[in-house]
């Protein structure tokens, strides 16, 4: 199996490492806009070397792990260059716009829209872990539009890596991820900003911050470029979730302003079901 990974960051690098671990004969080549990433990936043994777009026809699988707003154009660029038995997949955190932008391509059946629910707050090939996808959920959107034999082969690869498959439609994916992922990242980024704005002595943040604060702002360490593109691509659903979040913040602000302890307690208790959902 000869694979080209377009984008050798955390996800692209981790997928390459996982492929090599489970398929000893897999030959991984890479492309990236960052020459530093490419050099690190070669030095770390993540990829064999640097690929060129005019070599795409040589690959059995092309994995695209770049900012989501750049994915549709890249998929449309890659598809005409594939050999007839090759597949291109993307690892983007939004799916609706990507699927819409490729839906009329004559070789649409050689594309599969995927999103691994895996990652860390770190980025770059140095952050890549071969076991990142073990036990992770792999969301697959509009799988019925991908050629059956190609779909079967990549599903076997995902399962060999230890991933659990979840089939979804692209619109539903973006709605759900806005609530459980995109909103949490915005909250983390903005909490970090608020504390930095209010606390002028940064040494006190380090000295006084407990594990609760550290875990809450952990996501603020994530790559801003990656998340700016995600928020832009999923704008409608992100704004919907933000409005709901702001409404709840206003409720607790009002209760505190009115010194209404019972209202505060009711608001806190109203989230008790989350303990049963996420254990």
Secondary-structure blueprint:
Blueprint: E1 2-6, H1 10-22, E2 27-31, H2 35-43, E3 49-50, E4 61-64, H3 71-78, E5 87-90, H4 96-102, E6 111-117, E7 137-141, H5 148-160, E8 164-168, H6 170-198, H7 202-208, H8 211-216, H9 224-233, H10 235-257, H11 261-269, H12 273-277
Parallel strand pairs: 1-2, 1-4, 2-3, 4-5, 5-6, 7-8
Antiparallel strand pairs: 6-7
Query: Strands across the major sheet, in which order?
Result: 3-2-1-4-5-6-7-8
Number of strands: 8
Uncertain segments of ≥5 residues (pLDDT<50)? none
Q: What's the CATH H-level superfamily name of the largest domain? A: NAD(P)-binding Rossmann-like Domain
